[in-house]
Structure formats: C-alpha cells, structure tokens
Amino acid sequence: MHIDDALTARKSVRAFRPDPVPLSLVTEILEIASRAPSGTNIQPWKVHVVAGETRRRLEAEVLAHRETQPADDGAEFPRTSKRKEPYITRMRTLGKEMYSLLGIPKGDKEANWRQWGRNYQFFDAPVGLLFTLDKDLDAMSFIDIGILMQSIMLAAKARGLDTCAQGAWNNYWSVTRRVLGVPEDEYIICGMSLGYADESAAVNTLVSEREPLSDFVTFHGFD
Ligand SMILES: Cc1cc2nc3c(=O)[nH]c(=O)nc-3n(C[C@H](O)[C@H](O)[C@H](O)COP(=O)(O)O)c2cc1C
C-alpha cells in the first residue's frame, strides 16, 4: 500500500468484528512502528497489548468502576476540559455526525453514556493497546507517543486492519493500572483499539472533516 493511500484510508473505526488478530501480526505492526522517531531517540513509549482473558477482565473492571464511581473520570496527568473556538465547533461537528450515524438523539444522556462506554470495550476489537509514559518525562515525549501511535495505525491499515486512538483510556486509570500492573511512575496516556472493521456498521462510514491548508498553514519566504 502506498503511504498516501494508508494516510487517506486510515480513519477511526468504532465497531469491530470479533475475528482475532494473530499475535504475529500485532508483533509485526509494533516492530515496524517502532521505527518512529523520538526526540534524541529516547523512545519513551511503553505499550501494553491486551487480548483474551486479560482484555475481558480489563473491560469488565473498568466498566464496573465507571458505574459505581462515574466522577472518577479525570486523567492522572494535567488536562483541561476548557474549550474555545474553533475547537468547539470542530468537536461538535464530529459529535453531530457520529451520533446521527449511531441513531442517538441530542440530549439522550443515557445513550451517550452507554456509547462512550463502548470505548472501554475497545468497540469490540479483539486487541487493545495502552500507551504509558514515565512520569519524569515532559510534553515532548507526548509528541513521541503520538508519532508511534500514528505509525501503528498506518502499519495496521497497510495490513488490512483498523484502529481507533482512545484518549478515553486516560480516565479510570487507577483500574487499568491495577489490572495491567502499570508501575506507579508511569502515566496511562492513551489507548487504541485494533482489529478488523465491521463494514456493516453505520458509524464506520464516518469520514471526519479537515480544515483547508489556508486555515492552518503560513508559508514564509516563498516568492
Ligand atoms: C489522541 C487521540 C485520542 C482520541 N480519543 C478518542 C476516544 O477516546 N474515543 C473515540 O471514539 N475516538 C477518539 N479519537 C479519535 C478522534 O475522534 C478522530 O481521530 C478524529 O475525529 C478524526 O477522525 P479520523 O480518525 O476518523 O480521521 C482520538 C484520537 C486521537 C488522535
């Protein structure tokens, strides 16, 4: 697959088929993605790959915790929920398109809660990835993890697999830490679903918008 085709075809998939992904394929994707660059080559990423019984236990424990302690939903590292324009509009556009495909009416809090909970089932993907980072590192290392994640998503796409990056997994981090034995000195930064897309699911037809270059690029020094 040409890199441009992988870049264009990759999109967030939020409904997966149960077909298992062989360990050898997951390993191949991680091997190639580990060529991702990182500042001064410190390779700060750690990845927990979950499948089978561990995946089921993680899902069950996080979902149970979420029901009993719904307010325990912040990240362990500093984040803000404050949003301003143009981000609010972009976020709402995505939400509107996605929830309309899911048939969830605006204001249906119960259905919204359930749908967000699908994150903690990895949208039924057989494999989940959790990315963790040494707490002593700084914002530059978050960039490195993002680059690794995109590398994984592209390598997966080139092999017929789909993904969804999931910031949702930085919530309820205490449960994930306990179930996977993530050391206290690491943050749980993000999760990712990995598997085969359910092509019949309406939500997977969503192609998110992008702003034109004129909105975010400033060219300097070109005549
Ligand atoms: C760091 C990061 C965190 C994300 N977290 C979530 C998430 O928790 N749940 C979800 O459904 N999508 C999540 N997404 C997917 C974004 O909503 C998606 O990338 C964006 O809308 C663009 O759509 P596309 O990936 O289909 O191109 C996340 C993406 C990134 C890069």
Can you give me a brief rundown of this structure?
The chain is an alpha+beta fold and 223 residues long. The mean pLDDT is 97.
Strand and helix map with partners:
Elements: H1 3-9, H2 23-33, E1 45-50, H3 52-68, H4 87-101, H5 109-117, E2 127-134, H6 139-158, E3 162-166, H7 173-180, E4 186-195, H8 213-216
Antiparallel strand pairs: 1-2, 2-4, 3-4
Helix pairs in contact: 1-6, 2-6, 3-7
Bound molecules: flavin mononucleotide.
Structure description:
The structure is a single chain. With 223 residues, this protein is of the alpha+beta class. It has a domain of 154 residues: NADH Oxidase, CATH 3.40.109. The chain has a four-stranded antiparallel β-sheet with strand order 1-2-4-3, with helices on both faces. The structure holds flavin mononucleotide. Flavin mononucleotide binds next to strand 3. The site of flavin mononucleotide (FMN) has 12 residues, from strand 3.
Observed structural traits:
alpha+beta; 4 strands; binds flavin mononucleotide; NADH Oxidase; globular; single chain; 13% strand
